[in-house]
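Structure in, sequence out. Go:
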């Protein structure tokens, strides 16, 4: 493995993990409010504006490796494929890379999301993250308990990434050529591109996010018959389009601000890692 390949892997791992932690610490309360707005029990019955950092533990533990795996997969796919294809098919490359990244990352993300969202919507002070984790495993089994929402999570995350990443790469290219005289973008430029791309993705995929939340929060009996399609049909039947877009405002805000922080931090961290590896000639045994 060449030194350049090692640098791609290492920078993607560390930058992805650092970016995820930055977003979690800054925007977790908004994530909690979104989950409660999308819950079938209602906003105030699941805690309202109180204790908005409930669930931060599992999220902090899981989000760093989840993001690291995503960008390791995404950047690696780009590294190998991007130079070998015509520019006309680059959007397809980015979409494929993002899809592969989500499939891998959600292996960690799904269990974390189940525990986190149940913690966010629980009003029982005895329901700690560890108790929720153990109860899910004991009552439903490891796969059914913790990976119940894996399919619905992919159904929401993949369309989001299929929109966000091609738009992000396009905006970065246009911004670089049109406003930066074809010099590398600053991290805040990348952050702006990420935020704009997230707006398009969030608006389109909010109903899928609502369905994913309902499936992950449902009790064992109800969950066996729940699919993305049945949940969306039931939501529309009960509340119309308003039900499909529950939590729309905080969802879009979270995606926009979160992507600004995430991609800005990711680019800054990646550049730092690349400079460090280049200047120090770091040697890694693989």
């Amino acid at each position: 493995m060449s030194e350049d390949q090692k640098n791609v892997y290492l920078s993607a791992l560390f930058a992805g993990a650092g970016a995820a932690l930055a977003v979690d610490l800054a925007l977790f309360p908004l994530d909690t409010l979104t989950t409660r707005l999308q819950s079938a029990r209602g906003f105030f019955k699941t805690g309202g504006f109180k204790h908005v950092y409930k669930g931060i533990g599992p999220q902090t533990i899981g989000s760093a490796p989840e993001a690291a795996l995503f960008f390791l997969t995404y950047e690696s796919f780009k590294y190998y494929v991007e130079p070998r294809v015509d520019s006309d098919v680059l959007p397809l490359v980015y979409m494929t890379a993002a899809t592969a990244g989500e499939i891998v990352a959600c292996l960690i993300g799904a269990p974390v999301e189940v525990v986190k969202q149940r913690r966010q919507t629980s009003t029982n002070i005895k329901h700690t993250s560890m108790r929720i984790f153990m109860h899910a495993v004991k009552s439903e089994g490891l796969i059914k308990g913790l990976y119940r929402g894996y399919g619905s999570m992919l159904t929401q995350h993949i369309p989001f990434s299929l929109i966000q990443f091609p738009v992000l790469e396009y905006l970065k290219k246009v911004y670089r050529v049109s406003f930066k005289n074809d010099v590398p973008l600053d991290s805040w430029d990348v952050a702006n591109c990420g935020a704009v791309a997230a707006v398009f993705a969030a608006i389109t995929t909010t109903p899928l996010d609502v369905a994913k939340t309902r499936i992950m929060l449902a009790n064992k009996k109800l969950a066996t018959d729940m699919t993305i399609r049945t949940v969306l049909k039931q939501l529309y039947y009960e509340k119309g389009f308003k039900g499909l877009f529950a939590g729309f405002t905080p969802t879009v805000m979270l995606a926009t601000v979160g992507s600004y922080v995430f991609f800005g931090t990711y680019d800054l961290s990646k550049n730092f890692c690349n400079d460090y590896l280049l200047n120090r000639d770091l040697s890694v045994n693989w």
